[in-house]
Amino acid sequence: MLQEHDNPFTLYPYDTNYLIYTNTSDLNKEAISTYNWSENARKG
């Protein structure tokens, strides 16, 4: 796979950044939902 591309760094950094972004965005969604729940609990 590496030999097919002239520069392997054109592909791999994008893949790793994409994986990191998707993982952190999922964690952020969970954190935001928990934060919203705590805000609603405080108001009530």
From the structure above, extract its key features.
mainly alpha; 73% helix; 44 residues
Gist?
Its EC number is 3.1.1.32. By secondary structure, this protein is mostly helical.
Work out the radius of gyration. Answer: 19 Å
Counting DSSP E segments of at least 2 residues, the number of strands comes to 0
Give the uncertain stretches in residue-range form.
Answer: none
User: What percent strand?
Assistant: under 5%
Category by helix and strand content = mainly alpha
Number of helices: 1
Mean pLDDT: 67
How many domain modules? 1
Morphology = rod-shaped
Can you offer a commentary on this structure?
Keywords: Hydrolase. One of its GO terms (molecular function) is phospholipase A1 activity. Its EC number is 3.1.1.32. This is Detergent-resistant phospholipase A. The chain is mainly alpha-helical and 44 residues long. It has one domain. It contains 1 helix and no strands. The chain is rod-shaped. The model has no long low-confidence stretch (mean pLDDT 67).
Strand-helix topology:
Layout: H1 12-43
Protein name: Detergent-resistant phospholipase A
Enzyme class: hydrolase
Keywords: Hydrolase
